[in-house]
């Protein structure tokens, strides 16, 4: 009984579907006949069938040409199928390739040298995803391009001399008998210049130095902190030692090796002396509380004094001559405005009033050294691809990776 009922229902369902298909076909045929797209004689010859097909195509073209279509660019949800193949093609062409074929890696290794408060990486080696890299994505991109890259790590707040000597130790053990290209951000450029001019017993060859927003002529914001907070005062003995190093650098190579060793010892002794807190406080720092005045000796570092305009222009530069065997290149950064509430906002205002265009810590005037390549629209921290939340910034998005790809290609084209 159940089987017969099921068979009956299935038969009825097939009949209903068949009738619906026939009815739909008849309706379509009737409409096409009334429009003149098919012959009224249903038993047409093959030639009339071909004619029917041609007439149908002509009609479809005519309807498509005369209708007013909705613009799928304006109403994409109403016509998602329009231009779908073109969107697929466009997507394929717009896929970003991190390293373009037009870029070239330099022939010799790149040594990345960080700036003040810099580092190579922070975080556990066992969990790479929790690490923070100073050269975020830059090291990896240069390596993918084909460059050999060394990431140096020197004392974060040490003096130029101390940082240069540590850099020399790293390269002496890792780059023996190898030509290298220095690529330095911020204070790292001063470290490299000191190494090139004053450390001569090298077992590696420095071919070029490329600096990115290095304060070659100091930074007015460091002058402000010295005059108003009391940090960054230069020791007289350190200034004298640097001047004697400069005299040695201008003499013969043999004299350099002999005199440098003696005065490095003098610099070490000078750096070890501590000026009393009463002498450190600037006369203009009336708003500095007595408690902060006592803390200043602990807040001060040798790097602050080495980054003032006084030290760079009157002590460091005159006594650190360029090596004619080394090529010097430089880049600067500048942004039209930085909000005052941002970390670089106040320094930007101070430097703007003194030196003009700047990136929040270094002016474009101070960043120029050797062959100046270009000024990029970026702040100081953009140049090493440091991410942070930007609110109220009036600047275009900056691609640090592309900058370093261009930098690598620039070195390659100059034969390095």
From TrEMBL:
The keyword Endoplasmic reticulum applies. It comes from the Eukaryota. Residues 173-226 form the GPI inositol-deacylase PGAP1-like alpha/beta domain. One of its GO terms (cellular component) is endoplasmic reticulum membrane. Its main location: endoplasmic reticulum. Residues 42-58 have a biased composition (Low complexity). It is found in: Endoplasmic reticulum membrane. Its EC number is 3.1.-.-. It holds the Pfam family PGAP1. One of its GO terms (molecular function) is hydrolase activity, acting on ester bonds. InterPro entries: AB_hydrolase_fold, PGAP1-ab_dom-like. Residues 39-61 are annotated as: Disordered. GO terms for biological process: protein transport. Keywords: Endoplasmic reticulum, Hydrolase, Membrane, Protein transport, Transport. Signal peptide: none annotated. The keyword Repressor does not apply. Involved in inositol deacylation of GPI-anchored proteins which plays important roles in the quality control and ER-associated degradation of GPI-anchored proteins. Belongs to the GPI inositol-deacylase family. PANTHER family: LECITHIN-CHOLESTEROL ACYLTRANSFERASE-RELATED. This is GPI inositol-deacylase. It comes from Modicella reniformis.
